[in-house]
Structure formats: structure tokens, C-alpha cells
Amino acid sequence: MSAISRDDVAHLASLARIELTEQELNDYAGQLDVILTAVASISEVAADDIPPTTHAVPVVNVFREDVVTPSLDRDSVLDHAPAAEDGRFRVPRILDEE
Amino acid sequence: MSDLIHASAVELAAQIANKTVSAVEVAQAHLDRIAEVDGRVNAFLYVDGDGALEQARAVDHAVASGQALSPLAGVPLALKDVLTQTGVPTTAGSKILEGWRPPYDATVVERLRDAGVVILGKTNMDEFAMGSSTENSAYGPTHNPWDLERIPGGSSGGSAAAVSAYEAPLAIGTDTGGSIRQPAAVTGIVGAKPTYGAVSRYGLVAFSSSLDQAGPFARTVVDTALLHSVIAGHDPRDSTSIKEPVPDVVGAAKSADVSKMRIGVVRELSGEGYQPGVQARFDEAVELLRAQGAEIIEISCPSFTYALGAYYLIAPSECSSNLARFDAMRFGLRTDDNGELSAEDVMRHTRAAGFGPEVKRRIILGTYALSSGYYDAYYGQAQKVRTLITRDFEAAWASVDVLISPTTPTEPFRIGERVNDPVAMYKADLCTLPSSLYGGPAISVPIGLGDENLPVGLQVMAPVMADDQVYRVASAVEKALAQQWGGLLLDQAVAL
Question: How far apart are CA B179 and CA B197, in angstroms?
């Protein structure tokens, strides 16, 4: 499996919306390489005819009756928002981005 | 022992019910103990003294008015800081949630309240439960009460340390790849991971949703089973919650009868990398079980060798998705919102400032494993290995009732020893990962001290929804060893 470069980590960090420092980019590139080497053995097993397991205990969609039940009080939720205004979350600008 | 902090949960509940002692006195004794030793242990991130005393008063009121009590009414408990409790800070060991006071109770907390269990506070943990040593907490490491220079295991290290330091007789942890069993083993107490889906995940800050499971810690197997029976059961608010009735774990723990049980020793969970003292205690425990009439059979589970690889792809993949919710918009930290930066940049800055190194590492790893071109080779392949591990378990159940192994390959290592070597750290979970990926129940019970005079645990694994079987075997081991030692392993620890 392929080695991970500093630029690969920079791309992944951008996908994951985490600003990493130069130091972190270099450290993680090395460490991820070591981790991926350590887990590479899984490619030796499990042929095409093995189905994947997504969940420990098989689950199917679970539905409830379509009735109104109490939900969290709006003020108690907004109390811990980083910023709120007029009973709504206040967020930084989302338009005019590149 | 008669003093309050050394008593078992069963003893405390009985004394409270018959008015020998009040729940308030019991809570106060534990709050005093926390004040005395937690500066050295750092098991707690938040101590809710007022809340605990208020809950204790309610129990005393119920006792006075002759109301029927639950078997754990008035018993104090330490809660891992990954479960929400209304109005009480919940950080999951992360700076990104610092100061957040959730507006709702986790189902586990609701059930504890209903049972009259007194919640003393929130315990330290590896950030978002990612780690095996509690060193990844943003709030400093927890110290192992057996040796303060050593790790208490992780990620539920705070909960385990609280119980082994007599700060609480009961604690709740969560286990994704061993985060209850491994800390229990290295602190010399009992810890169980119930069958996946047995305990509701509602209000549990998600790390790896297909693996996360809350479970009990205590100093005795019966106390652990009692707590298990309080928190388990179907919850419509968790779509993966199991509908079947909870197995009779308390009855099994009390019976401790392993005669005619078929117990499988997993060949792959021994040998290279296992400390001689760990292996020796394990071999002695096997003989104890044989002496009690159990049939011991060696079992080969070849796919277990690949559990580490599968886990460290599946868990980071799920975490990279789950932790996307920490977007600086609705709750938790927001940094650099100066009116100039866009929402996306504020998000990038906040996640950089709020997440610690291991969390970032796993998010990046998970993002990689899920990205197009690599998905099949990594995440897809890991899910197939999960199938193979499940098949190994199912094949084993044809010839044995439970499987056993050491809980950890080594005794607790020194704080700082593995922080710069992620793979060495991950190997602490070698024995606990298979049953996490499979979803069956597993328990760790103390079986003695190893080469460095530190605790060693035995892991018992059982089929899905056969949680009673792991308690039965653990209890048999505990009983046999109590006869040899004249008490619990923890009695051999140097007092703090």
C-alpha cells in the first residue's frame, strides 16, 4: 500500500476541515505510514466472496409512530451555542466564499 | 470491611435500606475521599458535590417513607465524561466541548437516576474515547492508583481509577475496542462490555457507532452485574438497541457455577508479546476453572490476528464521520470568529484548536481510509475481516460456551512510555478487539499480579446476548481467588 506524503496529509486535512501546522503535516505523514503498514495485513485475507459486516448486530430500519413528542426546549439549546440571535444560531458568513 | 468507602455496592445498598447509614453519609464519605486523593489520581474532571448530596437526600427520603428501593439505591457512582447529564459539564476529554452543559440526560443517566444511584461526578478519559491510557485527555492524564507513575488504561481510565482508588464503588465506562476491559484489568477491578446494543447509546458522545457500548465497573462481579442490569434494556431512542430481555446477569454472578461448562482458550491470544507474568496468571486461572469442573478446550481463531488492522481502519473511519458534527456552529468551541473569516475557515481553526493530536490523527486516517480509490482496499477490506472474525466466534460456539484470554498482553506501562508510538499504544487492545468487532459480551476480572507486581486480568467472551455466561465464569474465578487471597486483589494495593 502506498506511502503517504506531506501533501497527501494536507489534502486530507482540508477534506476534514482541520487546519494543520507544518509540523503536524510532517509528523502525521510519517505516523500514518507506520499505522497503514501495521494494518496492511488485512489485505492478505478476506477474498471477494466474503461479505462485509457493517454492524455487530444486524439492524434494519427502525420506525416509530408518526406522532408529535416533546423535543428539547429551544432556549436550552441556544444557551450553549457559540453565538445566537433572535432565537436562532448565529454563524459566520457562508456566502462569497471561493 | 465496615468503613463506607471500602464497602461493596451490595453492602452499601443494604445498609442504606435498613437505615444503618444514610445515603447522604455514604455520598459525603466518597466526596471526602475524592477531596483527599483525587489531586494525585486525577480520576475526576468534575465533581458534582451538590448534585450528589441532593440525589442522596432523595434516596433517604424514599427510605424514610418506606418506598420500594432499587438494589443500588443510594450507592455512589462515577460517570465517564462521555455521557450527557443535564446541566453538568460534559467534555468527552476534549477542549472542543469545554464548558458545554448538555440540555438532556443520556438514557444511561436516566436509568441510574431512576434506580436512585448517586452520581458523584464525571471522570477523565482519552479524548473522545480514543486511546488506551487516558493520556490523550485534554485535561491531563489519570494515574493508576496501584502506581501513580503508571497508566490506568483507557479510554475509561478515570472511571477505573475512581473505583480502584475507593473514590466510588461503581462507575460507568464505554468500550469501543477495550476501553472498559483494559482499564479494569490494569487497575485490578471488574469491568464488562455488554453485548452491543444491550445498553442505549442515546446521550453517549459518538466515537465509532458500530462499536461503542457503555458498561459497568465495580470491585466485585456481583456489583458489576447489578449495575449492568440497571443500565441495560431496550430504548426506542437508539435504533441499534436490542429488544430482547436482558439476560439474568445478577443470577449468573451469584451462582458462579461453571461445572460442565465448556471453556475455550484462544490460541492466538498468547505467546509473543505477552508478558510472562500475564501468561502465568492466566494459566493459573485456567487451572482454577478446570478444578471447578469446567472442561477446558483449546480453540483456534485465526482471524483474530487481523482484528487490530480491521479495528484501526473501522474505528477511525467512523470517527472521521461522527466528529464532523463538531463544526463550531451549534455547540462547543468556536475560535477566530472575527467577522472576517468565513464559516468554513472558522470551522478549520476551531477544529485545529479544539482537537488533540490523537483525534486529529484518527480523523485524518479515517478520511484517508474512506476516500475514493482507497475505500475498497481499507474500509471495505476491514469490514470483510469483521465478517471473518464473527465466523471464528460462531465456529467456536459449536464446541465451547465461552472463550477466555488475558485481558491485556502486558501490565500497565509507564505514563509517557508509548505516547509517541501509536502502534505500540494500539497493541494494548490486542485481546479486547475481537469481541468488539463481533459484538458479543466480554468481561475482565482480576487474576493476580504480574512480573512488575501490577494487576493482571482475565477476559471472558461469550455469544451475543449470553452476557450471563461471562458473569458466571468471572464470578467463579473471583470466588476461587478470594479463598486463596482472603479477599479481593485490590486489598493488596498500597493505600493511597
Answer: 16
pTM of the model: 0.97
Instruction: Flag whether A98 is in a domain.
Output: no
> Among residues B8, B22, B80, B94, which one is catalytic?
B80
What residues does each domain of chain B span?
4-303+387-492
- Residues A45-85 pLDDT 10s: 867 889 999 887 777 788 888 999 888 999 999 998 999 99
Measured between CA atoms, the residue of chain A closest to residue B103 is A76
What is the percent of chain B with per-residue pLDDT over 90, rounded to a whole number? 95
Asked if B342 and A93 come within 8 Å (Cβ–Cβ), the reply is yes
Q: Are B314 and B414 in contact (CB under 8 A)?
A: no
Whether A39 is in a domain gets the answer: yes
How many separate domains does chain A show?
1
A25 located within any domain: yes
Catalytic residue check, B384: no
**Is B471 within 8 Å of B445 (Cβ atoms)?**
no
CB contact, 8 Å: B346 with chain A? yes
Does any domain span residue A75?
Answer: no
Q: Which of B409, B391, B379 is nearest to B208 (CA)?
A: B379
Residue B34's alpha-carbon distances to B47, B76, B78, B196, in angstroms, are: 8, 12, 11, 32
Specify whether the CB–CB gap between B108 and B172 falls below 8 A.
Answer: yes
* Pair B198, B232: CB distance under 8 Å: yes
Q: In CATH, what number is assigned to the domain containing residue A11? A: 1.10.20
Question: Looking up cell 503535516, which residue turns up?
Answer: A25
Using the Cα atoms of residue B64, residue B70, residue B75 and residue B81 in order, give the sign of their dihedral. negative
- Cβ distance B312 to A38 less than 8 Å, yes or no, reads yes
Q: B89-114, pLDDT tens digit by residue? A: 999 999 999 999 999 999 999 999 99
CA atoms of B108 and A72, how far apart (whole Å): 18
Whether residue B477 contacts residue B445, with contact meaning beta carbons closer than 8 Å, is answered with yes
Q: What's the ipTM?
A: 0.93
Residue recorded with cell 443494604: B14
**CB distance A17–B327 less than 8 Å?**
yes
* Contact assessment for residue B320 and residue B370, using Cβ atoms and an 8 Å cutoff: yes
Nearest to A91 among B240, B329, B348 (CB): B329
Closest CA to B462 of B315, B251, B240, B262: B262
Domain region containing A30: 1-46
Q: What's the CA gap between B38 and B44, in Å, rounded?
A: 7
Residue A77: closest CA among chain B residues belongs to which residue? B103
Q: Among the options B8, B132, B137, B155, which is catalytic?
A: B155
For B494, the grid coordinates are 498500597
B459's grid cell: 477476559
Q: B42 exposed, middle or buried (CB, 10 Å; 0-12, 13-18, 19+)?
A: buried
Q: Are A97 and B342 in contact (CB < 8 Å)?
A: yes
Does the domain made of B4-303+387-492 have the CATH classification 2.40.50.1020?
A: no
Cα A4 to Cα A27: distance, rounded to the nearest angstrom = 11
